[in-house]
Every structure is written in C-alpha cells, then in structure tokens.
Design the sequence.
C-alpha cells in the first residue's frame, strides 16, 4: 500500500545498472530541505547546479554531479522535487539511498511519482497510462500513439463527450428538479432525443475506428504451424533475418515453442515457431510439443500454416486450425512451383522460398497489411480494454436514455448521468456534482 502523501519519496528515475549518468528524483515536502543538507546550501530553483553531495553526518562525499530543484506545483509530481544527476555507479546509489533514508525520505513504490502527479492534477488517468505506454514503446508507431495520448488527445475527446451529454441533459434535469418552472417535458424531450441519438452514433463510430489502437499498443501474436519438415523454422529465421530456430532435415526438429518479435509496420508481432503437427506414431515429448503448438495456434491473433507442396498428402491437422484471414504458405518454391488447389475459405494463399528468398518480401508485405493495415497513431485512440469498456458502457446507457426520454424523462436523465460517468472513467474525472454544476452554469435559476 502507498503510505501517506505527506512523506518525501525518492527513487532512481533512470535505468538499472551501471551508466555514465544516473538520475535520482526526490519528491515531497522535505525534498528541498534534504537537498540543502546534502549540497550544503540552498541552490536556485530550476537551474542545474554543479554540486558535491555530502553526508551531513560526517561530510563524507557521496558524489559530484548536477542538482536541480523544482518548486510545487511546477514539477512532474506537483510537489517540491529535487533531481540529482550523478555518476551511474552502484556504490554511489547505495550511499545515496542510505543517507536519504537517514534524512527521512523513503524509497518510492512502483508508479508512486506518477500517482502523486495524478493526485495533484498534473495528468489524468489516460495520460498516466500513456506515460507507461511511452516507456514501454518498442516501435515508432507505439511511441507516436503514446505521445499523442500523453498530450491529452483521448482525454480531450472523452471530456468533450461527457460535457456534451451533460449539456444535453441539463434542461431535463432542471425540469425534474424544478417542475413548477412550467417547462413542457415533451418539448424538452423532443430536443434531447435526437441529440442523444447523435452522441450515441458518434461514440459507436469512434469505437469502430479505434480497433487498431489496441493492436498498436498490445501487438499481435502469430503462430507458425504445419507438418514436420514443412519449413516452418526456416520461414521464421528468414522473417527474423537470423538463425533463431534450429533447422534440419530431421522431422521433429522443433519441439518447444520458439518465439521472436518483429516490427510489422509499427505493430509488434510476437511470432511463435511450433512443433510439427502430424498423426503418425509419436513419443511423449512430441505429443506435448504438438499440444503446445495447437494451443498456441488457437490462442494466436493470426495463424500462418506452412505446407510443403511436394508432400503426398495435405495436412488436415494443420488446415483445420485455420480461420478466415489466416495465411497458407506453400514453401520451398525453389524446388516446386506446382501447388495443390487446397485452401480453406477466406485464407490468404502465398508461395515462397525461405532458401532463395523468392516471394518473401511479398509475404512480409501481405502479413504487414493484415496486421497493421490502416494502423496510424494520428487521432485520439482507445488504447486499452478499460477505455473500450467505458465507451461501450456509455453507448448502452445512451441507448437506454434514448428509449426512456419521452415516457420516463427522470430515468433517461439517470441513464445519461451513467453515460457521462462511464466516459469520466477514462480520465478519472467522475462525479455527480458535475451535472449540477452544468445546470447552474447554463441555467439561470434565481429563485
Ligand atoms: N530447398 C529448400 N529447402 C527448404 C526450404 N525451407 C526449408 N527447407 C528445408 O526443409 C527442411 C526442414 O526445414 P525446417 O525449417 O527445419 O522445417 P520445420 O517445419 O521447422 O520442421 P520441424 O521443426 O521438424 O517440424 C530443412 O532441411 C530445410 O533446409 C526452402 O525454401 N527451400
Ligand atoms: K525439421
Ligand atoms: Mg522447426
């Protein structure tokens, strides 16, 4: 559990291990006082000062480096912050931690700086998530999406919609709370109905276009499956451009799942090479390898079946695992271009040679289109299941509001409130007070 917010916390902000420079961050009410004790004087705010950090107990030097102070609320956390840029040494880290703890600061828990920033209104929930995404980003597309989100793109649209819902419902609320005003419910309802319908439609449209956002953030899993010796591992190696998996002419070379990660048009694809599937006599290890291969194929976002066109029969075990949109690769095109006319409905068929490379770039192109086609990180996006769920909840609540608007306006108002609250979950700005605020700001009820 996080301790009380009154305390001062510290942590290394840069990566673990030896480095030229490591950055340490100290945040909380005592940050500047502790810094002064270490530096021996109070330095200017927001200016890097070259200092010697010393243990105030005996004056022993901890390290020389840069110190910068940020004053609340103009800091990352919104609290007083001291930052030290020291040599990236393990020994420096140990003595600094010892002295900081003795001076009353404590090591920060995971995410605690960001949590404080959130509590102090420096960023909202969607932005805090984006910060985590940015730190985890592996591709430029992921980085772009995270930076856009950190800028508050999603927060802004979620807030806009929430306000629109509240604005549409405000007259209705007023009518319920102050029935003696003399407003005609039917007229109010007539005005609110189409507005709610429009809002609901734009939320549905947004939900439809945001599917790629989660793909960008989460990546996709691809299982390479097929009978023994079909050339699965050779294909994985050719895609990765390195000898990730063992290749041999012995059937049953791959037994366990071998994974590698590729950047396909900005989307991270986790590619799994699997054991060959066959119905012939097999030992326990082979049987377990096949079980894992099938399980991986079933759980993957996309399956790529590899078949050798020269084999006498086409592997049903493999083809039965394919779904529309999956790939069927006829391998070893350098040996045979004669391919059987056998492919399940909706499966993308392609021929290539991992050995000569013929057909490989075209396959990468098709695979990229399947995985990342239409993926861009330009607009606001629902990057997490949490966001999608919030929008879905809002859509459902608006549908109920629409249905109730004429016969039970007070129920419709409650549904609209729920829709607004659902959207408020995206940024973490939820509150029933908001709708009252909306009423009093847009209505003049001076009685
Ligand atoms: N000529 C030619 N040989 C290939 C090609 N792809 C794979 N092979 C050969 O086919 C044999 C089997 O290749 P692997 O990649 O080990 O096949 P696999 O499907 O992973 O086999 P298992 O792991 O045993 O299920 C090896 O001898 C490869 O060199 C190709 O495109 N052309
Ligand atoms: K093999
Ligand atoms: Mg293999």
Sequence:
């Amino acid at each position: 559990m996080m301790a009380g917010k009154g305390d001062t916390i510290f942590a290394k902000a840069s990566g673990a291990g030896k480095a030229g420079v490591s950055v340490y961050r100290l945040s909380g009410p005592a940050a500047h006082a502790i810094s002064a004790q270490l530096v021996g004087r109070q330095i200017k705010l927001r200016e890097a000062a070259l200092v010697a950090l010393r243990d105030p107990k005996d004056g022993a030097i901890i390290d020389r480096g840069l110190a910068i102070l940020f004053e609340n609320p103009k800091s990352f956390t919104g609290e007083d912050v001291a930052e030290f840029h020291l040599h990236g040494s393990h020994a420096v880290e140990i003595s600094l931690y010892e002295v900081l703890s003795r001076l009353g600061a404590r090591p920060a828990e995971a995410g605690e700086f960001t949590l404080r920033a959130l509590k102090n209104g420096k960023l909202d929930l969607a932005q805090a998530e984006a910060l985590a995404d940015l730190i985890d980003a592996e591709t430029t597309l992921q980085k772009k999406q995270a930076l856009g989100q950190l800028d508050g793109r999603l927060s802004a649209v979620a807030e806009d919609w929430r306000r629109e819902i509240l604005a549409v419902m405000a007259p209705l609320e007023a009518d319920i709370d102050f029935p003696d005003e003399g407003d005609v419910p039917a007229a109010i309802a007539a005005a609110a109905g189409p507005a709610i319908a429009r809002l609901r439609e734009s939320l549905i449209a947004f939900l439809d276009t945001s599917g790629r956002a989660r793909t960008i953030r989460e990546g996709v899993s691809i299982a390479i499956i097929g009978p023994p010796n079909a050339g699965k591992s050779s294909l994985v190696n050719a895609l990765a451009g390195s000898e990730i998996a063992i290749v041999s002419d012995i059937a049953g070379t791959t037994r366990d799942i071998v994974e590698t990660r590729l950047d396909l048009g900005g989307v991270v694809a986790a590619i799994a090479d699997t054991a060959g599937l066959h119905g012939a006599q097999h030992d326990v290890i082979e049987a377990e390898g096949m079980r894992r291969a099938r399980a991986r194929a079933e759980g993957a976002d996309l399956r790529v079946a590899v078949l050798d066109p020269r084999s006498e029969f086409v592997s049903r075990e493999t083809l039965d695992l394919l779904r529309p949109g999956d790939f069927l690769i006829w391998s070893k095109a350098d040996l045979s271009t004669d391919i059987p006319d056998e492919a399940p409905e909706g499966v993308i068929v392609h021929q290539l040679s991992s050995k000569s490379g013929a057909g490989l770039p075209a396959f990468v192109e098709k695979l990229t289109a399947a995985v990342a086609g239409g993926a861009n990180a330009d607009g606001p996006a629902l990057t997490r299941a949490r966001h999608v769920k919030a929008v879905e909840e809002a859509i459902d609540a608006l549908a109920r509001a629409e249905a109730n608007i004429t016969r039970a306006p007070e129920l419709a108002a409650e549904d609209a409130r729920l829709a607004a609250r659902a959207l408020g979950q995206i940024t973490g700005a939820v509150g029933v007070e908001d709708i009252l605020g909306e009423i009093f700001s847009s209505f003049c009820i001076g009685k």
